[in-house]
Amino acid sequence: MSNATRGLIDEVWDKYSQYSAHQLVGITHRDGPWKDMRGDLPKEADSDLLIAEEDMFNWFKHEYEAALAPRNEPVMHDIAAEFAALQVA
Protein backbone atom coordinates (compact mmCIF):
# COMPACT_ATOMS: atom_id res chain seq x y z
CA MET A 1 0.00 0.00 0.00
CA SER A 2 1.40 3.38 -0.93
CA ASN A 3 1.92 6.14 1.64
CA ALA A 4 -0.70 8.23 -0.16
CA THR A 5 -3.27 5.44 0.12
CA ARG A 6 -2.43 4.90 3.77
CA GLY A 7 -2.83 8.65 4.35
CA LEU A 8 -6.23 8.59 2.68
CA ILE A 9 -7.35 5.64 4.81
CA ASP A 10 -6.18 7.42 7.96
CA GLU A 11 -8.06 10.57 6.97
CA VAL A 12 -11.26 8.63 6.32
CA TRP A 13 -10.86 6.80 9.64
CA ASP A 14 -10.33 10.07 11.51
CA LYS A 15 -13.48 11.53 9.99
CA TYR A 16 -15.87 8.57 10.12
CA SER A 17 -14.76 6.22 12.92
CA GLN A 18 -17.09 8.01 15.34
CA TYR A 19 -20.19 6.73 13.52
CA SER A 20 -21.99 3.44 14.07
CA ALA A 21 -22.55 1.00 11.21
CA HIS A 22 -26.19 2.11 11.00
CA GLN A 23 -25.19 5.78 10.79
CA LEU A 24 -22.62 5.04 8.07
CA VAL A 25 -25.25 3.23 5.99
CA GLY A 26 -27.48 6.29 6.31
CA ILE A 27 -24.67 8.63 5.27
CA THR A 28 -23.45 6.60 2.29
CA HIS A 29 -26.72 5.33 0.91
CA ARG A 30 -28.41 8.70 0.44
CA ASP A 31 -26.30 9.54 -2.62
CA GLY A 32 -24.54 8.08 -5.60
CA PRO A 33 -24.99 4.59 -6.95
CA TRP A 34 -27.17 3.45 -4.03
CA LYS A 35 -29.74 6.13 -4.74
CA ASP A 36 -29.51 5.56 -8.49
CA MET A 37 -29.99 1.79 -8.14
CA ARG A 38 -33.03 2.13 -5.88
CA GLY A 39 -34.85 4.32 -8.36
CA ASP A 40 -38.39 4.95 -7.12
CA LEU A 41 -38.37 2.37 -4.33
CA PRO A 42 -39.73 3.72 -1.05
CA LYS A 43 -37.08 4.66 1.50
CA GLU A 44 -38.06 1.84 3.84
CA ALA A 45 -38.17 -0.85 1.12
CA ASP A 46 -35.43 -3.48 1.01
CA SER A 47 -33.53 -4.02 -2.20
CA ASP A 48 -31.22 -6.81 -3.34
CA LEU A 49 -30.14 -5.12 -6.55
CA LEU A 50 -26.39 -5.22 -7.13
CA ILE A 51 -24.34 -2.13 -7.83
CA ALA A 52 -21.59 -2.64 -10.42
CA GLU A 53 -18.03 -2.28 -9.08
CA GLU A 54 -17.30 0.19 -11.88
CA ASP A 55 -20.18 2.41 -10.74
CA MET A 56 -18.91 2.30 -7.16
CA PHE A 57 -15.36 3.06 -8.26
CA ASN A 58 -16.40 5.99 -10.44
CA TRP A 59 -18.55 7.49 -7.69
CA PHE A 60 -15.85 7.20 -5.01
CA LYS A 61 -13.18 8.50 -7.42
CA HIS A 62 -15.32 11.57 -8.10
CA GLU A 63 -15.92 12.09 -4.35
CA TYR A 64 -12.20 11.71 -3.63
CA GLU A 65 -11.17 14.20 -6.31
CA ALA A 66 -13.89 16.65 -5.25
CA ALA A 67 -12.64 16.50 -1.66
CA LEU A 68 -9.12 17.41 -2.76
CA ALA A 69 -10.10 20.26 -5.10
CA PRO A 70 -11.10 22.84 -2.44
CA ARG A 71 -7.80 22.26 -0.65
CA ASN A 72 -5.82 22.63 -3.89
CA GLU A 73 -4.28 19.23 -3.27
CA PRO A 74 -3.23 17.14 -6.22
CA VAL A 75 -4.23 13.50 -6.53
CA MET A 76 -1.05 11.91 -5.20
CA HIS A 77 -1.45 8.47 -6.70
CA ASP A 78 -3.19 6.50 -9.38
CA ILE A 79 -6.35 5.45 -7.58
CA ALA A 80 -7.42 3.29 -10.55
CA ALA A 81 -4.18 1.27 -10.35
CA GLU A 82 -4.52 0.83 -6.60
CA PHE A 83 -8.14 -0.28 -6.99
CA ALA A 84 -7.08 -2.81 -9.62
CA ALA A 85 -4.39 -4.14 -7.28
CA LEU A 86 -6.95 -4.57 -4.51
CA GLN A 87 -9.20 -6.57 -6.83
CA VAL A 88 -6.35 -8.98 -7.60
CA ALA A 89 -5.43 -9.47 -3.94
Give the N-terminus to C-terminus distance in angstroms: 12 Å
Give the H and E element order.
HHHHH
Over the alpha carbons, how many angstroms does the gyration radius reach?
A: 15 Å
Helix content: 55-70%
Secondary-structure-based class equals mainly alpha
Tell me the total number of β-strands. Answer: 0
> Can you tell me the residue ranges where pLDDT is under 50 for at least 5 consecutive residues?
none
The main pleated sheet reads as: none
Beta-strand proportion = under 5%
Number of domains: 1
Q: What is the overall number of helices?
A: 5
- Inertia-based shape: globular
Q: Which oligomeric state applies?
A: single chain
Average pLDDT reading: 80
How are the SSEs placed, and which strands pair?
Elements: H1 3-16, H2 21-28, H3 32-38, H4 53-68, H5 79-88
Could you walk me through the main structural features you see in this protein, from its secondary elements to its overall organization?
The protein has 89 residues and is mostly helical. It is built from five helices and no strands. It is globular and about 40 Å long. The model has no long low-confidence stretch (mean pLDDT 80).
What's this entry about, in short?
With 89 residues, this protein is an all-alpha fold. 62% of the residues lie in helices and 0% in strands.
Question: Features of this protein?
Answer:
0% strand; globular; 89 residues; mainly alpha
